[in-house]
What does this fold into?
Amino acid sequence: MKCPEVVIDDEVKERFEVFLAVTCVFELEGEGSAEEFLLEAEERVRREFSLEKLKDYPRVRALRDFYWRLGIDPTKQRPSSEALVRRVLRGRKVPRINCIVDVGNAVSMVTLVPIGIYDLDKLCPPLRLRFAKEGEVFKPIGGSLEKLSRGQIVLADARRVVHVFPHRDCDETKVTGETRNVFVVACGVPGLGERVVVETAREVGSKLIELCGGRSTPVKIIK
It folds into this structure.
C-alpha cells in the first residue's frame, strides 16, 4: 500500500494559492489512547490563547481572510481549528472520538492548522483539489446530503467529494475504530507558512505512531 497521488487544479492554484501537506500512516492498532495528549493540548490552548484576542492571531486571521475570499462568513462558520480552540476557551472539552481523530484534533488546535484524516482503505485514488461541480453532492460527518455550488473548493477522489476545503470531511471516508491505514492532510492557505503546515502533518504522523503503532511516509507538500 502507498500514499495516494494528489494534485491541485491549476484554476484553484491560480485563484487561491492553496497548498497541502500530506502523509500516510499504515498498520495502526486500534487500542491506543490519545487522552493524555489531548489534555495537554487543551491546557496549552488555555495557557496560550484568549477568546478576546483569538481573532487577531496571525494564523486565525489568515484562515478568516481566506474564508471571506470563498464567500464564507468566518464568524458564522468557523475554521475547524479555531472552532476547537474556542470550545476549549469556553470551558468545554473537545469531544473524544477515537485515538486517530483525537490526535488530529489535538495537533490542529495547538497549531491552528486545519487537518483532515481519512480512512485510506475507503479512498479511491487519485485525489484532486478542485472546484466543485454545480449540483455535486456531499455528505458531511454527522450531517445529511447536501448540494455544493461551483465556487466551493473540494478534495475529491475518483468516486466522491471527501472534503470541502478547508473545514468539512465526508462521512463515507471518516476514521472509525476499525481504521488501520490513514491519509493525513494539513490544509495550507495564504498567510499560513509552508513550514508550519508541513510540521503539522508530520506531528500528526509521529504522534499516531507513538500512540497507535504503525509506520508513516515522509510528508509531501502539494502545491
